[in-house]
Amino acid sequence: MRKAIFFDIDGTIWDNSQWIPDSTREAFVRMKERGHYLFISSGRTRVFIPDTELLPLGFDGILAGCGTYGEFQQEVKFYHSIPHEKILRVNDFLRSMDAAYVFEGRRFLYLDEERFPRESPFPKQLRESIGENLIAVTGNEDKLEVSKFCANYLEDTKKQKELEHVLEPDFTVIHRGGNFMEIVPKGFNKATGIREICRILGIAHEDTYSFGDSTNDLDMLEYTAHSVAMGDGMQQAKDTAEYVTTALKEDGIYKACEHYGLI
After folding, report:
1. What is the pTM assigned to this prediction?
2. Cα angle value 63/69/74 (rounded, 5°)
3. Which residues 6+ apart lie within 8 Å of 149 measured at CB?
4. CA angle 33-34-35, nearest 5°?
5. Is pLDDT of 139 > 90?
């Protein structure tokens, strides 16, 4: 029976240096040979998912932006963006808070580098990853096309609580560790993306599996019929998943696929 298997990228498929274990590559080959559907399910928006490095692994589809975007066999099946008027109000508010932030859309990421501390490697890393698809917020306000955003370096605890209070009616704030916050429109997460693509493709819930390692994977791990947390992942993910495998570098994906008979 064909299964649909959903994989987070960072900390699940590859590590911080984008290294993928050979055993993971082999697991993907063997799952494809058995006819299973393979999906990326990422908090990254589509523009920030590197096709060259990931698509040759055999993925049939991509769920991006924490459930706001879905494609299957290179055809876009759904996309939900934040209304332009709302993202302009969010932009004004984040500026008033002196927050460092990046707006994320399916074609561009928007970031004002001067808002980040000089010692932060984040803007440079983004530039190296997506090049001309990283553009400034300032001067491009009328062109903003955004489905989610991240805020960081808000050191003042009082300001952080104010930010969460103001955003809470319309957005879900996901704490990713330290002072890094991932912010997604209410009603969207990795689980909603999986539910929508499965409805479109006619995939039964009992045939769904997910692999993740962090707090933005919790909805996905709770929702799918079977779920795997990486052994070196965050404790919240381990507490939520049905099965905890070994660490990424210890053949975690391969061993979990063996455990479930997927390979």
Report:
1. 0.94
2. 70
3. 90, 101, 102, 103, 104, 183
4. 90
5. yes
pLDDT tens across 102-138, in order? Answer: 999 999 999 999 999 888 898 999 999 999 999 999 9
Show the tokens assigned to 50: 């590197």
For 141-153, write each residue's pLDDT tens digit: 999 999 999 997 5
Report the DSSP beta bridge partners of residue 228.
Answer: 211, 243
